Each structure stands twice: as C-alpha cells, then as structure tokens.
Amino acid sequence: MVFGGIGHNKKVGSNSVTRRKGLSMRYNNKNMKQSQNPRRSSRKSGPMPLNKRIMEVLRRNRKEPVRLKDLAVFAKVQPRERKEFDQLIAQYKAKGKKLILNLLKDKYNIEEKDFESAELEIVPAGNARDLGLDRSLILAYGQDDRSCAFASFKAMLEVENVNKTTCCICVDKEEIGSVGATGMASHVFENAVAEIIAKLLPYSDLTLRRCLANSNMLSSDVNAAFDPMNPGLYDKDNASFLGGGIVFNKYTGSRGKSGASDANPEFIAKLRKINDDANVSYQMAELGKVDQGGGGTIAYLAAKYGMNVIDAGVAVLSMHAPWEIVSKEDMYQAYSCYKAFLQAN
By mean pLDDT, which of 132-141, 152-161, 233-242, 294-303 is the weakest? Predict the structure, then answer.
C-alpha cells in the first residue's frame, strides 16, 4: 500500500531526493545517474510502504506548519494487494459491527432495524465541573442554550403573585433555523395560546393576535464572551465578558444587522429599571465584530407577532465547542433577571 499524489522535492546536500507517486529514487546532481545506497542494495525495490510514507511527511513538517494537503490524503492500494486488502477490511467491519450490535442489544435492547427510526446524539462523556482557581466558572457541553433554559424555567417556577400570565417556552432546532414542528418557526406557541383563550373566552383570531401583540418576552439565549486568545474577532467596546452579568443584545444579525431582531428603546428602558430596582447586574453587547462575528436567535420569530422582545442570556466562552464555559455569577444574575422580569407589572 502506498500514498498517491504526495509529490515533494527536497535538496539534501549535493543530491536531490525526488518523491513522486509513492516512488523514492536518489540521483547525483553531477551525472544524473541513479546511485545505489549500499544500505538499501539488498532490499527489494518498489514503492515506499505506507507507514514510512507517513513518517516522511511528519519528519518534513516537524519544523514547518502542518499542511492540509499532506495530511488529507487517500491511501492507494496496489492492484495485487486490492483483494487481500478488501477482505481484511470486510473482516474488521463485520467483527466490529457484530460487537457493537451485541452491546446495544444487551444494554439498550436496540436492534439494527431500530436505527431507521432512531435519533442519536453523540455528546462528550464527562460531567459538568468547576473551572478556575476560584471555581467561579462552569465547564460543560451544551451550555448554549441549556444554561439559559435552566435559569428561565427555575425563575418561572419560583415567581408568585404575578399580575400577568407567565410562561417559559423551550423550543429546539434553533441552530438550523428553528424549523420543524418543534421549532419556533412553527405554530406551536401560537396554537398553545389559542387553546388557552378558547378555554377562557369565546375564541376569535383577533383576540389571539391582541394577546400576542400585548406580550413582552426575553429571548433567553447566550452571547459570545470576549476571548482574549482571539481578540481580533471582537469589538472590545461592545463585547460581553464573563462575570459581567446577564447580557442584553439590542439587535443580533450578521454583517451588521442583517437578519436581526431589533428591540425598541422604550422596552430596553423598562428592562433597565426592572433590573436596577432588583439590583441585577447586566451588560449590553453585540454578537462579535461586524463582518467577523454575528448570528441570530428566535427573537425575530416572536417579534413578528408585534410583541416586545430582546435577547437576554449569559456570556459563553468557546461557544459551540465540545466544552463551553460560563460564569456562575452570570448564571445567578440571569436567573435573578428572569424572575424580576416575570414579577414586574
């Protein structure tokens, strides 16, 4: 088995070593005749083995940046080795498949046919844990957006004697456009409110529209925290920071405000007063530098009903990475903000 298409020429002393299509030959620059290496004269000539080819690439790159074209290559099998190679791969596949299916059957009672209707998710195996010398941070996967969902739901359960109906709606598929029957782009929330109205009043579409338009909403979604390892991707004057409190995004979007939901200033002023009265720490921020960062949430989908809505969530470092980081203080401030918001008149 040899590599195909990793051509490389390199000068070594007075000789030139040419490596093309898995071949290794040594020439003398003076007479260009093939020279014999006494240490290799007894070896069988032919293409360089796969493991030696890999080592050659690694040796060549040990003092240079790793080049993708050197690493992202395909192995080419000589025709005489193809049959044996295919049989070997088939044996390993069959053996591995059998072991995995037996494990799934014994542990989860899952058959092979069940994969046709399964929805599987592969997540890091580790538990959430404290981070930092003072343990003020939380390291865990999926904190976008489980952190805000937890704080929102906890706040809703603990509020009492509210003047208006409160709710916490958790929807999925936000990262792919809030599509599907359980995404915010569906009518699931609208239908739920319609069912409540039908139980309390003679139902009419106008009543539903007025109810939604007179609602206020915090879109509980995270914001990208300033990363000191990549400062060029952030506008430091408009970035959110770990430990700075809950983050309000007046507008989201990319390339400025493209595809954004833009909260009106009167609603933001009311939120400022609510948080100031409740002694809640908050910060105003954007989603990264213009033309560098950006993104969107479900806020624009709620705004289409005419309700007041703004993005409000915790700052997250290493967003969308297998392990994300949030501040415990920010989590508490988010919970306090949501609770004060639901209790406000």
Answer: 294-303
Amino acid letter for position 304 = K
CA distance 285 to 281: 13
Amino acid at 6: I
Domain at 292, CATH number: 3.40.630.10
List Cβ<8 Å contacts ≥24 apart for 195-201: 196/165
Please give the residue range of the domain that contains residue 62. 2-76
Phi-psi region of 118 (alpha: psi -120 to 50; beta: other; left: phi over 0): beta
Q: How far apart are CA 178 and CA 193, in angstroms?
A: 19
Helices (H) and strands (E) counted in the chain, each on its own, are: 9, 16
Vertex 26 angle, CA 25 and 30, to 5°? 140
Angstrom distances, CA of residue 102 to CA of 114, 120, 122, 182, 220: 14, 18, 19, 33, 42
Tokens in use for 328?
A: 């415990």
Cα–Cα dist 39/227, whole Å: 54
Tell whether 166 and 66 lie within a shared domain. no
- How many CB atoms are located within 10 Å of the residue 307 CB? 15
Say if residue 180 is in the same domain as residue 288: yes
Same domain, 186 and 259: yes
pLDDT tens digits, 205-214: 999 999 999 9
Is residue 122 in a domain? no
Ramachandran angles phi, psi of 249, nearest 5° = -110, 105
pTM summary value? 0.70
Of 97, 117, 137, which marks where a domain is finished? 117
| Nearest by Cα to 279 from 215, 333, 335 | 333
Cα separation of 87 and 253, whole Å? 52
Give yes or no: residues 277 and 339 share one domain: yes
Q: For residue 210, what are its two tokens? A: 């007025």
